Each structure stands twice: as C-alpha cells, then as structure tokens.
Amino acid sequence: MMESATSLMQMAKTSAKLNDLSEAGLPYISLCTDPTTGGTTASFAMLGDINIAEPKALIAFAGPRVVKDTTGQDLPEGFQKSEFLLEKGFLDFITHRKDLKKKINLYIDLIQNNSLRKYD
C-alpha cells in the first residue's frame, strides 16, 4: 500500500482477474515468498487454487511488531511464519525455491490428469 490509493485499486482489479481465470477453468497458483505482507496477503496471496510458501517466510497483513503494539499481547511462537499458516490450513505446502518447478509441475500434471513427469 506504500504506493497510495492506486495500489488499493489494483488489488480489486487483480482479484477480479483471478475470478476470470477461475471461470475459464485455469488454476491460480499463489507463491508466498519472504516477506509477503500488507494488502497482498489480504487479497490475492491467499486466493490461489493452491497456495505455496517458502520455508520460514513471513506472511502477514501487518508485521509482528505492529500486531503486538496494537493488541498489547505477545504473539505465539512462529506466528505469521509459513509453517504456522500451513498448520492452520492457509497453505497447501511449503517448498524451497530449488524444488518449486518440480512441485508445480506435479500439481499441474495431477489436475490435468496427465502422466507424471519423471525427474532425475
């Protein structure tokens, strides 16, 4: 949102285009890297047909310091990290970037009912 109201308007447009993808029967694969914060998290980062994250990625609307200052409470250990979100059902899996191509190809092969690709 640091770019102003323009960013806020783009969130709505992006979310609408994701709906177009869905209506066309095309999957939306969301990858949350470190950090994924702000409006991105509140909108299209969690709208994927499959949501993937990197290990130990910070994924949050507001950072831990802001949440603590606002609520006055200490956050649970690992709160706002990808592993916590996976445990709570917000992510489908966590993978390192080096394994990302293989994992996404496997997912695409499965949803398209294709033969699984072979890797060394």
Question: Could you characterize the architecture of this molecule?
Answer:
There is one protein chain. The protein has a domain at 30-111: Alpha-Beta Complex (2-enoyl-CoA Hydratase, Chain A, domain 1), CATH 3.90.226.10. The relative contact order is 0.13. The strands form two sheets. It has a three-stranded parallel beta sheet. It is flat. The protein is 41% helix and 12% strand. The mean pLDDT is 89. The chain is of the alpha/beta class.
Strand order of the largest sheet: 1-3-5
Let me know the CATH homologous superfamily of the domain at 30-111: 2-enoyl-CoA Hydratase, Chain A, domain 1
Oligomeric form? single chain
CATH class of the domain at 30-111: Alpha Beta
In whole angstroms, the N-to-C terminal distance is 43 Å
Radius of gyration equals 16 Å
CATH domain topology of the domain at 30-111:
2-enoyl-CoA Hydratase, Chain A, domain 1
Beta percentage is 5-15%
Give the averaged pLDDT, no decimals: 89
Count of individual helical segments: 5
Going by helix content, strand content and strand pairing, the class is alpha/beta
Chain-wise SSE layout:
Blueprint (H helix, E strand, L loop, with lengths): L4 H19 L5 E4 L3 E2 L1 H4 L7 E4 L5 E2 L3 H8 L10 H6 L5 E2 L5 H12 L9
Parallel strand pairs: 1-3, 2-4, 3-5
What's the gist of this structure?
The chain has 120 residues and is of the alpha/beta class. The protein has helices at residues 5-23, 39-42, 64-71, 82-87, 100-111, and strands at residues 29-32, 36-37, 50-53, 59-60, 93-94.
